[in-house]
Each structure stands twice: as structure tokens, then as C-alpha cells.
Amino acid sequence: MIRRGFIAAFRAILADRTAAILLVGSAILYSFFYPTAYSGEVPTRLPVVAVDLDRSGSSRALVAKLPALQQAELVARLSSPQEALAWIEARRASAAVIIPDGYEQNILRGGQGAVALYGNGAYLLRSSTALSGVAAAIGAAGREAGVDQAQASGAPAAPALSLIQRPLFNTREGYGSSVFPGVAFLVIHQTLLMGLALLAGTIRERQGKRRLPAGDLLGIALAFLVIGLCDVAYFTGFVFWFQDYPRAQADAITLFVAAVAFISATVAGSLALASFFRTRERPIQLWIVTSVPIFFLSGLSWPSEATPAWLVALSRLLPTTPGIHLMVGVNQMGASLEEQSGELANLALLTLLYGLIAYARFSARRVGAQETLPRNR
């Protein structure tokens, strides 16, 4: 029974061009298409303008530091703040640096030199990136001025503060490196769900009210488990390496156990969902518009602390919420199975719950040994 269902499932997939494209073609397409939008990771060489109203040696030294920035590129030296504002409004510049009159005198008196930074709030990421780069240059100039002040007053110069930033998991510090690892496992979930929904819909259309034998049902589940594990191996073994995304080189056994738990819950949930629809297209129509809400509910891009408690609890009924936490934690952060025991337990309960629902819907009354899956003709 199990072997028959396992083989018949692959035959049905090969005979159904739509299911084959969903299960194989879409995963490959997404692995190359989706990361392309984030290939730059972080904005660089953003246009910045400078207005030097002080026209002193210190102000010119500060402006001279701007062209050395990776995040920003000095495109013009303007004569007034109004002109700088016009450049920002015309989108010719992402940020403006304005050095007021008296900047150098305040530093020489032992005071603080004030510098004004302005950015375009309509493009938050571009503006914040440019301003952070400019702020780093200003901070470096400020430390140099502080040492000069200490030496001029005869006091021993204090050691300069050295800030070393070492990101733990998102080592590229890019948006793509943060988002795509979680999206990859969502893609695996969605392709398995829609492909299995298509196949289950075909089974229901052909068998009518007859029930699917339990062995055939388990064989179908095992077939999609194999497909899902192949998808996980493809993304974690090739795509993350090819796209140069951070990965923690997780232990093979740990990654395998995590993948089995995630894919098992996904397959069980897909079978349970598909059992409530009579036609093969209905689950796809319902599920295809839910990718973004499901990803937000996973807590990877939107913190769970900012989500209503009842919605967080409800999201635990989706295999994606514990599944993405588990897979990203193991593959990107190097977590152990013991550290992810809560997610594993969540997935195990979902597998049991949805597996029982699928069994009750498909195999509660066992029919004869006739073939119920579509044959490859």
C-alpha cells in the first residue's frame, strides 16, 4: 500500500505538468529570481551635497572626508541651505551636510562644533544609509578635534575610542541576507502545499466519494516528504552558497532532523487543507494570496512583541511559524536541536493534528485495493 502510493504519487506529478512546474520549476525560479532584487544588499554611493558656511580649515577638512565614504558620494558643494533643500526636493541628492558659520571657532574655544544633517524621508533606507555614513565621517573628525583640544590645553590626550562592530548572524548586514533565508523556507512550504493540493484535488475529482486507503495516503505523504527534503538540500546546500548568504554550517544530522520536522508538518497541513476542497484550483486560490501575511506572522521581519498575543498564538497553528524559526535558527544561527526543542515540539504536534485530520478526511472508510491515483498514460 505505502509503496504503491509512493510510486503513484511520483507518476501523478510527472503526468501533471502544472504540479511538476509548481514543485520543481517554481523553487528553481525563486532561488534565482527573488535574491536578484537584493543583490546590492545595502545602498552605496548615494549622492550627498555639502554647504560650508564657515569656510575654515576645519570645515574644509570635514568636507574632504566625505568623498572617501562608501555609503555616500559628494556630488556638489553648494552655497546655501536653500539650494541644498532644492537638490533634495528634486531628488538629485539623498542627504545634505550643512556646516554653520563659527564651526572652527567653537572647536578652538574648547566647545563643540555643530553640523546639521538633512535627509529625504520619502526614501528612508537610502536616506538613513547616507546619513549614517556622513555621521561616521563627522564622528571621526570630532575625535580628531578632541585630541587636538587636549593637546592644545596641555592635558594628556585620552586614548581614542575604537568601536568594533561584529554582526553575529547577518554578517553582510544587508536586507537580502536578513529576509531571504526565511523566505526560502516559505517558498518550500508554499510550493509543497500548492503541488500537493493540486494532486489531492485530482484524486478527489477522480474518486468521488470513495475514500483513499491509509497506505496510499501515507505513501503520498512520504513522496512529498522526499521532495521537500530535496528542496531543503537545494536551498541550504547550493542556493545560500551561490547567493553568498550567511550560513552557520549546521551539522548535517541537526539540519536533517530539523528539515524532517518542518516538511512533515507542511505535508500534513497541506493534506488536511486539500481535503476540504473538491476542485484542485481552490486551495491555490486561497493560499497564493497569503504568503506575505504568513511571513509576517512568522516573526522574522515583524517582531512578535509588536503583534497581538492572540495573533501570535494563532500563528503557531501554521507550520511556517515554528518551521522558519527552526530552519533559520539551525542553518543561519548555528542553534542546536536542544535550543530549538520548543519549535520541534510545535511542529510535532502540528504533524499529529493535521495528519489525523487528513486521515479522517481521506481514509476513514477504506475502499478496495483499486488504484485511486491518476495513472501516467
UniProtKB/TrEMBL annotation:
Single Gene Ontology MF annotation: ABC-type transporter activity
Regions crossing the membrane: 12-33, 179-203, 215-241, 253-277, 284-302, 344-362
Pfam families per UniProt: ABC2_membrane_3 (PF12698)
UniProt topology in membrane: Multi-pass membrane protein
This protein's GO CC annotations: plasma membrane
Keyword terms of this UniProt record: Cell membrane, Membrane, Transmembrane, Transmembrane helix
Chain ranges of the ABC-2 type transporter transmembrane domain: 24-359
Main location: membrane
Localization annotation: Cell membrane
Keyword S-adenosyl-L-methionine: no
UniProt name for this protein: ABC-2 type transporter transmembrane domain-containing protein
Gene source species: Sphingomonas turrisvirgatae
